[in-house]
Amino acid sequence: MGQFSALVLLAVACAFFTEAEANPFVYNYERLRIGGLVFTCLLVIGGVTLLLWNRCKGGNEKDKDNSSNI
Fold it and tell me: Which InterPro entries did the record assign (predicted)?
């Protein structure tokens, strides 16, 4: 059910943002630039998150030090 609602939401969003133009080869460069900036921001945030994942993950230091079990 969740996949179906996500598909419907995606279809509504695509229908909302599409515009019928007389000439299909005229591009809206402002929308393309904004979309590129949003995509780039998401990639940068994802990359920083992956780089800092182990530092932010935390964990118990006692579990990592097993030298006392020898």
Answer: FXYD_motif (IPR047297), Ion-transport_regulator_FXYD (IPR000272)
SS3 20: coil
Tokens for 21, please give them. Answer: 């133009």
Report d(CA 8, CA 33) in Å as an integer: 26
C-alpha 42/C-alpha 10 separation (Å) is 18
CA separation for the pair 38, 52 (Å, rounded):
21
Residue 40: helix, strand or coil by DSSP?
Answer: helix
Query: d(Cα 55, Cα 49) in Å, to the nearest integer?
Result: 10
Query: Looking at residue 52, what DSSP letter applies?
Result: T
Query: Rounded to an integer, what distance in angstroms lies between the CA atom of residue 11 and that of residue 50?
Result: 30
